[in-house]
Amino acid sequence: MNAKATDFVINTVTDLSESVPFYRDILGLELEMLNEEGGFAEFALPPTTLALGEANPQMPVSPGEGGTSIAMAVDDVEAATEELRDEGTTVLMDPVETGVCHMAMVADPDGNPIMLHKRNDGTHGRVDPFP
């Protein structure tokens, strides 16, 4: 096998009608595709795509806390965390400074963890876009 790239990252959700407004209106992501009948949505999150897929028998992943999270680059972790808290979003981890970055973690409506992240060196996305 020779993996070439990440085509998209997916979070499994229980209800697109609840999750899409959270990702679009609360997180401010651009909705690129919505297939309500198929239970699938895609958002622009350069350099990749963030997909939401409703839980179903063909998708053997359950919504909620798990071993994965997506890290979204933001300009100000503290401000983003407070903005989301004010919107009623559950904050799973308050902002911390690691010496390399600032980060915090919030939950989407299904409890899927989302990391808010800012590197101290000012970069974001893939460090080496396409080696």
From TrEMBL:
It comes from the Archaea. Residues 5-119 form the VOC domain. InterPro entries: Anthracycline_SecMetBiosynth (IPR052164), Glyas_Bleomycin-R_OHBP_Dase (IPR029068), Glyas_Fos-R_dOase_dom (IPR004360), VOC_core (IPR037523). PROSITE patterns: VOC. This is VOC family protein.
